[in-house]
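Internal tracking record. Fields below are filled automatically when a chain is submitted to the structure queue. Please do not edit lines marked as system-generated. If the sequence contains nonstandard residues, flag them in the REMARKS field before resubmitting.
Queue: standard
Priority: normal
Entity type: single polypeptide chain
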Amino acid sequence: MNNSNLPGIVMTAAEVNLLKAEAYERWGGGDPAEAYEKALQQSIDFYYNLNNSSSNSAGKVPPPTAEEISTFLEDPAVAYSGSQEEKLTKIWMQKRVHFGFLQSVQSWSEYRRTDYPMLTFTPATLPGYELPPSRLVYPSSEVAYNTDNYQNVRSGDVRTGKIFWDVD
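SYSTEM-GENERATED OUTPUT FOLLOWS
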């Protein structure tokens, strides 16, 4: 919040390795545990680098030691072990942690794709807005300037509509 030197983030190396870990776990082609652990190390390095690049001198903390990182990677909640579903859950949760507030839109998209973490929402009272949206509706400019094509998708243009890639 107080770091005026934050870069614009499109995709990080940690995110790439978490994607690789998921793909390797699902379909093979590489070592998912290696990609997972590399991603966690890259995420730690990334955030400590952001912290140290801050123009604000308050709140800077030293990076963890190799021993502390090793202890973290061996923690049962983090360690790459268990069934395939447990491993995928760990990948998705670590991706969520990595995205944090810096990539909140990407985090939301990953939540919609994976349904992790398991969240419970208290329904609101406003009709049609009881739960968070599953997709964004087309903007009014699209409706106004693309009337012919919009008519083809009008029925599906609701905030609770399913996105084409949502497999649930």
